Amino acid sequence: MHPLRQYLERHGLTVEEFAARIGVRSGNTVIRITAPESKSYFRRPTWPLMRRIAKETGGEVMPNDFVFPNGLDRRSKKTSNHRKPHAVTATSRAS
Asked: Which tens digit of pLDDT belongs to each residue from 16-25?
């Protein structure tokens, strides 16, 4: 479950109540930004909205919760597939 959904449950808030607190039109926006990325209605919130959410939740829900919804560990494992930059040496510069 998305950290924002967990926050809403812990604090007994509906998506409509929270939407009003962060200045969005309807609870549907909250539903879309907390949906799994595989859902067709998923939307990533804008940076200003992520900052308002962080402020409203007192830091319990942070922008990273939207950028990396499954945690940083899942993303960091992919770094081993990236190529290392080519080292520039004196011989490689001379051409």
From this structure: 999 999 999 9
pTM reported for the whole predicted model: 0.70
- Of residues 34, 60, 36, 56, the one with CA closest to residue 45: 34
**24-49 as b/e, with b when 16 or more CB fall inside 10 Å?**
beeeebbbbbbbeeeeeeeeebeeeb
Domain limits of the chain? 3-81
Cα 42–chain centre separation = 12
CB atoms within 10 A of CB 81: 6
91: pLDDT strictly greater than 80: no
Contact 24, 31 (CB under 8 A): no
